Structure formats: structure tokens, C-alpha cells
């Protein structure tokens, strides 16, 4: 699905609103039609009537092509930028990759069969694929940075549940957590580490997919920029838990998280939040003409019940004790339906046995948790003046964004606000 196709969905939805309202032919529908027509004029600039890209969010297919993911990789140089010869030398190719799994020397867990390069027992890529013949899983997930206000991209991630590899070490006792890290230029100062409680690895609560050693994205081998040949993917977590260029798993009796992000004043136990943002929104309009607005929602652990939009005059001061805009004039937007095609995927089809989809490749629920959804609305025209346009989500528990976790260090959930100037 191209940018034009995505906007065309919004145009069709807008037309339905106008038909229902009996006002088809007014100015709002051409706004989105114009955005469709102009989407390809200048790849470096957003289409007309499309909100400028403030944080990486952009019009894109439901599943993101690998090359279109936003990148926040660490490392100097970034490991994916290394020459091919260096990648082969340090194990960043499928032919040379190896994973070591061993006990933490400081807080040891009891393992009967650690997997190390020194003993010739480290896991190689062929052995991982062999495990995948009977254990591979695939699931959709949006990848999001804890401290950014937009998803980096969404795909179907495929790999072997991490627990299958941990069981190969025959753990016996004193195992409370696993921490892990990837290749970072053989420089201890550049090592980026994350961790998980062992309980989350060994079983999957709340109908979550398993934590996986991932080697495919959207049916293709995971490329180096996306963390290949193998990365960890934690379904419900922000991106810092899904370590790229994975090389080491350390099984430990440590009782607490030792993530690098924890040392940088972040909440490392925060799962994905639910929030909404705009993609197509006017910043200027004529008085009494309807306003077309559309956008996306990240569907976090709490799920998504609805998206709401408000248009509020700036001439009236807001209540001082309402930081989360609970008294704004919210109205429900429409969630766009399941896409008719999945063009980024091979043959336009969801791979068989993808978690969250039925045998025909249709989502078992909509919108799906841990993914994204698109929405649109047509607001009635207003008098001339300056207004604030906002959007928010309501999760399946009835919490309105930014609740239930409004704090930035546990992930973005702030309510976006856009100034709209309406002229006579």
C-alpha cells in the first residue's frame, strides 16, 4: 500500500461521512483528495494538508517495509554500517553468527550445559533454524522507542521462543532473570544491555506472544540495519528490550533489572502504551466548512476501544486543573477497518500460522494489541478564530489518554495539540 493508497482509504471514509450527513460536495473531501494527488510530488516534503513530520510518524502501509523503519541504532560506528568483511569477522552474518548462553559469574544460576565459544557449544544460525523447524512463531508488533512520540515501524516478526534455547543449557537452580546484549564494536563503554524476569521468558501471560530470537521480518531475513542476523523481540515492550545484533544471554540469580536504560532514568518495566496522533490535519480552514482529520493509534497492552478528537476555541481559557483535557469537547472518530490487502508481505498474504490471525489470514480481533490502527473523522465547520485540535485514545479499561500511565519516562502518551486558524 502506497502513501496514496493510505490516503485514499481516508478519502473514502470521508465521503461516507458526507453521504451520511447529506453534504457530499463540500470542501472537506477535496482536502484529502488533494493530499492523495500530491503525495508523490516531492519525496522530501509531506503532501499538502498532511501534518509535518515532527517525530518520524508518516503515512505508510499498515506493515512497514524493512527499509522504511525509522532507525535509532546505537554504536560508533553503528554495527549495521560496518564493512561486510568486518561483519563476518565479528559474527554479524548468518554464516558466522554465534550466541553464547552462560551463567552470570557474579550472581550465578546453576546450569548443566552452558553454551560458549570456548567449549565449542555456542549456538550457531543453522542450529537456531533447526529449532525453528518445530518451534518457530511469528506475530505482528509495532516497534517503538520509549522516549519518542511515534512508532518506528511495524512488521511481522519471526523466530524461535527464547525459552527453547534457555532449556538447552539445562538450568537447575537460582535462575531469576536473564540479561542480554549484542555486538557493540568490542567496546565495553558501548555495550547496551536489557533484561527480563525468567518467568516472562518461560511462559506467556495475558495471551502475549513469546519472547523470540528473531531472524525474519515480514517474511524476509532480518537485515543488518534491523538488527540481523538475530535480535531479541519482546512483544509487549518498547524497543530497548528488543536488543539488536544479539550475541550474549546471561542467566542470573540477580533479583532486579540491570538494563542500561535503567541507569539513564527510564522505567524499564513499562509495557507499550496506547495513544493517538494525527497524520492528516488542517492548520488553516475557512469558517463553517467541515474539517477532515485522520491519524493513527498505537495499540498498547491496554488495547484500544476508541479514538476521540476535540476542536476547542483558544478564545476561552482552559480550566487550570485539567492538565489532561478531560473537559474538552471530545467526539468519537471512526477506526478504519481491516486492510483489504497486505502489500508489504509476500504475495500480499499474512504468513500461515501468524499469531493473532485466523487460517484465512484475517485478524482475530480488531484493532490488534501491540500494533497500530488508523482512524479518521470529519468535524463540523466552526466560526472564524483560533482553535486547538487534539486527539486521544480510550483503552479497553476505559482509561483516557494519557492515563493510566501519564509519565514520560515510562513511554510517550502526551496528548498532541495542533493550532488551527479559521478565517472568514
Throw out a few tags for this protein.
single chain; 424 residues; alpha+beta; Immunoglobulin-like; Sulfite Oxidase, Chain A, domain 2; 5-stranded mixed β-sheet; 5-stranded antiparallel β-sheet; elongated; disordered N terminus
* Number of separate structural domains: 2
Shape: elongated
Oligomeric form: single chain
Unreliable parts: 1-7, 21-56
- For the secondary structure, the number of strands is 21
Write down the overall mean pLDDT: 88
How far is the N terminus from the C terminus? 38 Å
Rg from Cα: 23 Å
Strand percent estimate: 25-35%
> How many helix segments?
6
Q: Could you name the CATH class of the largest domain?
A: Mainly Beta
Structural class: alpha+beta
- In the CATH hierarchy, the third-tier topology of the largest domain is known as Immunoglobulin-like
The name of the CATH architecture of the largest domain is Sandwich
Largest beta-sheet characterization: 5 strands, mixed
Describe the protein in words.
The protein has 424 residues and is an alpha+beta fold. The chain folds into two domains: 3-50 and 273-423, Immunoglobulin-like, CATH 2.60.40.650; 66-264, Alpha-Beta Complex (Sulfite Oxidase, Chain A, domain 2). 14% of the residues lie in helices and 27% in strands. It has helices spanning 3-21, 28-38, 84-90, 125-135, 162-168, 198-202, and strands at 98-103, 110-111, 123-124, 137-144, 151-161, 171-173, 177-182, 193-197, 212-217, 220-221, 231-233, 246-252, 275-280, 284-286, 291-298, 306-313, 331-332, 334-335, 372-379, 385-394, 417-423. It has a five-stranded mixed sheet with strand order 3-1-12-7-8. Strand 9 (212-217) and strand 10 (220-221) form a beta hairpin. It is elongated, with a radius of gyration of 23 Å. The two termini are 38 Å apart. The relative contact order is 0.16. The model is unreliable at 1-7 and 21-56 (pLDDT under 50).
Amino acid at each position: 500500500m502506497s502513501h496514496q493508497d493510505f490516503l485514499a482509504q481516508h478519502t473514502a471514509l470521508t465521503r461516507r461521512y458526507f453521504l451520511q450527513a447529506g453534504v457530499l460536495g463540500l470542501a472537506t473531501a477535496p482536502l484529502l483528495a488533494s493530499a492523495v494527488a500530491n503525495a508523490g510530488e516531492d519525496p522530501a516534503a509531506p503532501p499538502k494538508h498532511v501534518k509535518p513530520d515532527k517525530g518520524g510518524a508518516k503515512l505508510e502501509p499498515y506493515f512497514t517495509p524493512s527499509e522504511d523503519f525509522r532507525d535509532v541504532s546505537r554504536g560508533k560506528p553503528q554495527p549495521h554500517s560496518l564493512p561486510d568483511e568486518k561483519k563476518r569477522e565479528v559474527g554479524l552474518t548468518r554464516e558466522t553468527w554465534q550466541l553464547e548462553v552462560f551463567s552470570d559469574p557474579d550472581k550465578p544460576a546453576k546450569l548443566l550445559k552452558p553454551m560458549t565459544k570456548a567449549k565449542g557449544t555456542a549456538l550457531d544460525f543453522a542450529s537456531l533454524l533447526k529449532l525453528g523447524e518445530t518451534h518457530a512463531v511469528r506475530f505482528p508488533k509495532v516497534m517503538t522507542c520509549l522516549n519518542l512520540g511515534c512508532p518506528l515501524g511495524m512488521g511481522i516478526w519471526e523466530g524461535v521462543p527464547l525459552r527453547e534455547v534457555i532449556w538447552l543449557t539445562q538450568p537447575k537452580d537460582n535462575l531469576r532473570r536473564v540479561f542480554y546484549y549484542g555486538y557493540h564494536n568490542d567496546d565495553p563503554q558501548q555495550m547496551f544491555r536489557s533484561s527480563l524476569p525468567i518467568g516472562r521468558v518461560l511462559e506467556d501471560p495475558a495471551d502475549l506472544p513469546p519472547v523470540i530470537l528473531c531472524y525474519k521480518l515480514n517474511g524476509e531475513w532480518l537485515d543488518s540495519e534491523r538488527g540481523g542476523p538475530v535480535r531479541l523481540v519482546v512483544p509487549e515492550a518498547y524497543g530497548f528490550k528488543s536488543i539488536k545484533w544479539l550475541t550474549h544471554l546471561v542467566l542470573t540469580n540477580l533479583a532486579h533489572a540491570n538494563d542500561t536504560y535503567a541507569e539513564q532514568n527510564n522505567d524499564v518495566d513499562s509495557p507499550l502504551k496506547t495513544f493517538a496522533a494525527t497524520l492528516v490535519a488542517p492548520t488553516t480552514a475557512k469558517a463553517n466548512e467541515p474539517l477532515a482529520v485522520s491519524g493513527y493509534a498505537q495499540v498498547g497492552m491496554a488495547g484500544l476501544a476508541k479514538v476521540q478528537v476535540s476542536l476547542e476555541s483558544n478564545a476561552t481559557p482552559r480550566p487550570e486543573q485539567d492538565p489532561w483535557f478531560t473537559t474538552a469537547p471530545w467526539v468519537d472518530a471512526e477506526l478504519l477497518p481491516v486492510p483489504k490487502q497486505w502489500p508489504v508481505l509476500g504475495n500480499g498474504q499474512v504468513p500461515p500460522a501468524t499469531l493473532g490471525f485466523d487460517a484465512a489470514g484475517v485478524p482475530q480481533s480488531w484493532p490488534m494489541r501491540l500494533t497500530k490502527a488508523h482512524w479518521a473523522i470529519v468535524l463540523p465547520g466552526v466560526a472564524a478564530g483560533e482553535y486547538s485540535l487534539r486527539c486521544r485514545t480510550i483503552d479497553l479499561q476505559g482509561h483516557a489518554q494519557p492515563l493510566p500511565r501519564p509519565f514520560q519516562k515510562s513511554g510517550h502518551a502526551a496528548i498532541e495539540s495542533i493550532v488551527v486558524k479559521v478565517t472568514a
